[in-house]
Amino acid sequence: MTISARALEIADKVEAFVRQTVIPYEQDPRRDHHGAPLDELVYEMRDKARVAGVLTPHVLPDGSHLNQRETAVVLIRSGLSPLGPLACNTMAPDEGNMYLLGKVGSPALKERFLRNLLDGRGRSAFFMTEPAEDGGAGSDPSMMKTTCRQDGNHWVVDGRKTFITGAQGASVGIVMAKAEQGACMFLVDLPDPAIRIDHVPNTIDTSMPGGHATITIDNLRVPADQMLGEAGEGFKYAQVRLSPARLSHCMRWLGACIRAHEIATDYANRRQAFGKVLIDHEGVGFMLAENMIDLKQAELMIDWCAGVLDTGSLGTVESSMAKVAVSEALMRIADRCVQVLGGTGVTDRTVVEQVFREVRAFRIYDGPTEVHKWSLAKKIKRDWKAAHAD
């Protein structure tokens, strides 16, 4: 399947917007206590993206989506700045939440909750992960402690959540809880007095507004018609969201590492040491050559996994493989870029140090590398046993 001319045109427009309009905002001081962009900055950039015709560019005017391979060429370009996905409305968790709502939501839920997200006029949060000290769900969602029970025409939700990206300042939440029937998902308007933000920690990454909050949900009453899909199907819906969302992260951070490599390459071709430019020293030139290899391998892995998802497969195995391969490759790239820049690489004089921090966090969220490897090893064992069954 080839990438359509329409998708390539959209991607070119997104790249031009990010390079010309968004990158100058990287030094904008409108940040919160630990460096994440304030909503004032986010919505100012989105207003400009709306005028430029690149807001939510992967969703077409008729509501249909570009396919995953086409989405990749667009989201990679949006990631050329850590602010690009925020400006273009392709950032997590909103992009994944919009995808899930589009796949599972009823027409009424789409009209009430999806429209503002597509228009870039609100942010969302996905409430799944729970505190380790409570024995709650992390990489293993079957450990979920948050409960929901039906009470007339409402559901009542109680529990705690943690690392809820963007919860502070979000207008829409997707809350996951466990009922007798199994896992359920609910759409809620935010803020809600029954959903209390206990703490927003400082974290190594600073690209996502609202931080990664710890939440207490106390007697949250949700109308029954705000359940997303059917009771007991929450884990299935989570996979509908998570496999493409993992890949979308790979796309965006590949874009950021392309930019970091550009900066390191420019520096290596200008900076003199020991009588010649840095790139002529094998120690530096070889690092940039290795970056070129890793960038291409990451691009090919993303394209392959996107092609699998475009067949209609959930792609859980493929997205796990892509998450491991791409996140580890991008970490190597970001680390080399810092090294090439030397002292400058550990300062905020360029975006490279932020890309390094963001990609380091990426190796953990949406499933740490080790969890995905463990899952893949289980599949290898199942396949072996099936092939050797009597």
UniProtKB/TrEMBL annotation:
The organism's place on the tree of life at top rank: Bacteria
Domain Acyl-CoA oxidase/dehydrogenase middle, first and last residues per copy: 125-201
Family matches, as InterPro entries: Acyl-CoA_dehydrogenase, Acyl-CoA_Oxase/DH_mid-dom, Acyl-CoA_Oxase/DH_mid-dom_sf, AcylCo_DH-like_C, AcylCo_DH/oxidase_C, AcylCoA_DH/ox_N_sf, AcylCoA_DH/oxidase_NM_dom_sf
Cofactor(s) listed: FAD
One Pfam family in the UniProt entry: Acyl-CoA_dh_M
UniProt KW Aminoacyl-tRNA synthetase keyword: no
Domain Acyl-CoA dehydrogenase/oxidase C-terminal intervals: 232-379
GO molecular function, one term: acyl-CoA dehydrogenase activity
Keyword Flavoprotein set for record: yes
Keywords: FAD, Flavoprotein, Oxidoreductase
A cellular component annotation (GO) from this entry: cytoplasm
A GO biological-process term: fatty acid beta-oxidation using acyl-CoA dehydrogenase
Similarity field: Belongs to the acyl-CoA dehydrogenase family.
The protein's name in its UniProt record: Acyl-CoA dehydrogenase
Organism per entry: Novosphingobium barchaimii LL02
